[in-house]
Design brief:
The protein contains three helices and no strands. It is mainly α and about 100 residues long. The longest helix is centred in the last third of the chain and has 29 residues, at about 65-95. The chain is elongated.
């Protein structure tokens, strides 16, 4: 009896620590408008996108072979494209100022 209780408790702690029961999809970060953004906003967006990508990779590891995996990859690509486009436009605007 004690052994089975220890096994159940051990598995429960393992599941909680590895996030086995919860795959939390991260929120999409907001990319500022490059036409009106200032440097601190772009730096914050860079940090937010990096944190999002880290969280999204953890989510991918959690869902593995699920339909959510492909949806997350598509969303990650869109966030990266949006951010990179904003950075290019911002740099172009700053260079012409």
């Amino acid at each position: 009896m004690k052994l089975s209780l220890k096994l159940v408790t051990g598995f429960g702690l393992f599941a909680l620590s590895t996030g086995l029961w919860a795959c939390d999809k991260p929120s999409t970060p907001e990319v500022p408008d490059p036409v009106t953004a200032v440097t601190p906003q772009m730096v914050k967006a860079k940090n937010d996108v990096k944190a999002y990508m880290d969280a999204a990779n953890a989510f991918l590891a959690c869902v593995k072979n699920d339909q959510k995996y492909n949806q997350m990859v598509d969303e990650m690509n869109k966030v990266a494209e949006d951010f990179n486009s904003a950075v290019r436009d911002f740099k172009e605007r700053m260079a012409s100022s």
